[in-house]
Write a structure and sequence with these properties.
alpha+beta; OB fold (Dihydrolipoamide Acetyltransferase, E2P); six-stranded antiparallel sheet
């Protein structure tokens, strides 16, 4: 996925790029590192800047679609599967002495909560490895 924008500043080693929000943004896995401004029509993206774009330059920012899919799967699939597995395990946990429905609900919620920690750890690891950050791939004009 590629978007055009203008470098408006810097934050550490990343460039701040102002772009217009597109339809792809609604489902983007990197939305957590974007900040909507001016009523949500525009946004500012923190992007890696290997091309050394300067403030005021028009640039193309890219995020690999494979990475977006991978992050989306981690974010949504792991908690969903954990919840389902927790329900099934809770249902079979007759040793607890609880009603099957209550044990099912408890099992589902416990594994769901555990999965949020797992997703957070995986997200931090991917962020440290710089796998999910937008990257400025070229300057325009």
């Amino acid at each position: 996925m590629e978007e055009e924008g203008i470098v408006i500043g810097y934050k550490g080693d990343k460039a701040l790029v102002r772009t217009e929000r597109s339809m792809a943004c609604n489902h983007c896995a990197s939305a957590s590192i974007c900040e909507a401004i001016s009523g949500g029509k525009e946004m500012v993206i923190e992007a890696e800047n290997p091309v050394k774009a300067r403030k005021g330059e028009r640039v193309v920012v890219s995020v690999e679609e494979e990475r977006i899919v991978r992050v989306s799967l981690i974010t949504y699939l792991i908690p969903t599967l954990a919840f389902i597995v927790g329900i099934l395990l809770g249902r079979e946990a007759t040793f607890t002495g609880l009603n099957r429905e209550i044990a099912s609900a408890l099992g589902g919620f416990l594994l769901l909560i555990l999965s949020f920690f797992i997703v957070r750890i995986l997200g931090r690891r991917m962020e440290e490895e710089r796998r999910i950050h937008p990257v400025i791939i070229k300057t325009i004009g």
